[in-house]
């Protein structure tokens, strides 16, 4: 409203709210209605210095964070993801709440207050006070690959623990039609319990595996747990988070597939061509609706024995991340 720019209106609210009315006055209502709303195009940006990735299309907005330690009061939010669908927040950052030196300030800074993975019920960082960490998760890399309207985000962090090292690799694969695949691979010697969680906005409706208009597909059942979020400083709001816990030894791979509620999803194997064995640490899906039909194949490990090719529903493929559009027969490789 201040700059009267059509592009910025496209990212704004649908109607003038009370705060804007008090700030700009009654004329702002008429001005807001007069400014045309430009069409929002697709965009994908990686900011390597901060480890921020922003993805946007006509329905969805995704923010991913995995970067170096920032200011002294930065949050422990590496390998975390936020998701908006149809302009509504779905997976969120829990917020900040306060700058006072108190326990809730520390709680909101922790990795356990973000949509990411943690190990053995412990936070990944060690907080000393509001402005100091004794330890902080180390970012190994943050990358973005884009091809044919598909985007692959890759992030990895590691934490030096008392007796071992914890590695967390997270991939986000996005397709049009609100298809988002989150893949997590964790390595840590010994027996552990992985906690994978997504913080929900307090207005989200979760019922029968649906989050508003989105369907979640996961090999492990989510549990709905209570949590606190803070949308404004000094204000707490009761909300929920989706949590799944997985016991493992040495390493584990997990995924969460997010699609429109009307999509049909089927898991399919990736089979090596010469051995006819299913690839380890791999997942693949047949995703279809009235207007589209995709095959997605992902395997996170190098194929070091035998053929480097594999079959996905009889289609010969090569590469760690493949998207095959069955409607036009086009294959896109996002990672070799």
UniProtKB/TrEMBL annotation:
Domain Heparinase II/III-like C-terminal: residue ranges: 44-194
Coiled-coil regions, chain positions: none
One Pfam family matching this protein: Hepar_II_III_C
Record carries keyword Lyase: yes
GO molecular function list: lyase activity
InterPro entries: Hepar_II_III_C (IPR012480)
Domain of life: Bacteria
Keywords of this entry: Lyase, Periplasm, Signal
The protein's name: Heparinase II/III-like C-terminal domain-containing protein
Species for this entry: Streptococcus agalactiae CCUG 29376
